[in-house]
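Consider this pair:
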Amino acid sequence: MINNLKAAIRDTKTKSDLNSLRSKGFIPAVLYGGKSPNLKLSIEEKIIKDVLVSENFLSTVIDLDIDGKKEKVIPRDVAYHVTSEKPTHIDFMRIVKGSKIILEIPVKFKNNDECAGLKKGGVLNIVRRKIELKCQAESIPEDIEISLSGLDIGASVRISSVKLPENSELTITDRDFVVATIAAPTIVKEPEKPAEETTDESAEGETAATSEGAEAKAPAKEGEPAGKKDEKSKDASADKKPSSEKKQTEKK
């Protein structure tokens, strides 16, 4: 984290002037607070772009070097371009000794290797990554440390069990809120594929088809020509001619 930063007084009056400044690789900024007048500043983007993404950038005290004159400041807000997501403006506030300031301080977990729940495969479920504190301007903490030692699956860390940094106090005092929990491991078990079953109807159909095929393909009896059975059938049908047909034949 950067603790020293160089800035320069800027003399911009129009939106065009600001765009020109940004095109040259500088970020417009403003310094306010205390009894001194507000100052319009510019900061070189390349020396600050990497620390802007830090989770505790907005709670870090910085020595701002303004044309050789140093002031203790704290970043209060960063504006970004809608599409390019490049920083377009930064607000700094002067640190006034003896005053108090409300900040969101990041939470840092330690002693993970001493957490029984994590050793069993549990998961650390972070409910609050930052906690809002009222701190003295000259002693702002970098983070809030929380130990996971001895916690088992199902345990929860409430704010009442957290040791706050010195010279700081909670802004939320009406409830004992949860900061984190040790959740049980989530395992998604794939359902077993059901065994394929043959329905009664299909079974009957298969049986009928098998019977018909067997009957059609039945071989002739041993010693009997294949066509003899057909001849017998013809003779049998001839014998079954109507009696009227037989009478007409006799008269002739």
Notes: The first helix runs from residue 15 to 23. Residues 124 and 182 are 5 Å apart (CA to CA). DSSP finds six helices and 13 strands in the chain. The longest strand covers residues 69-80.
